[in-house]
Amino acid sequence: MVRTKIIEVGSMVPAFEEERLIILFGPKATPELRDISVIHEVEEQPKNSIKVGGKLKVGEKVYNIEEVGSQANPNFDELGHVSIYFRNEVGEILPGAIVVSPGEFPTIEVGDEIEFI
């Protein structure tokens, strides 16, 4: 299990709600990336913790992990980076992305926890 805490929400994050996309980055993200990202600090992180069939918890909402891109775990382990698509259908997936369902976009606030279970 990985538990992280949201420490910053970029000014452009609400613009991605229509696409149902959240971009996570660790605290070392560049200023350009901070505008479009949810910045989080990992409290504990085993390697390769994002798995198909696992769960993603954002605040009180729980999602099923449907797809995991080939680079999602290495990027998350190294940079705290993963793109999360909240969708009911699975299609083409980017290497650094995951797809979770249901497609309901979560409310995100500083101080909320994100867990990969």
Automatic annotation (TrEMBL):
Coiled-coil positions are none
Give any single GO term for biological process.
phosphoenolpyruvate-dependent sugar phosphotransferase system
Q: Which residues carry this modification: Phosphohistidine?
A: H40
Give the CC-aspect GO terms. Answer: cytoplasm
Give a Pfam family name. Answer: PTSIIA_gutA
One example GO MF annotation: protein-N(PI)-phosphohistidine-sugar phosphotransferase activity
What is the name attached to this protein's record? PTS sorbitol transporter subunit IIA
| Protein species of origin | Enterococcus florum
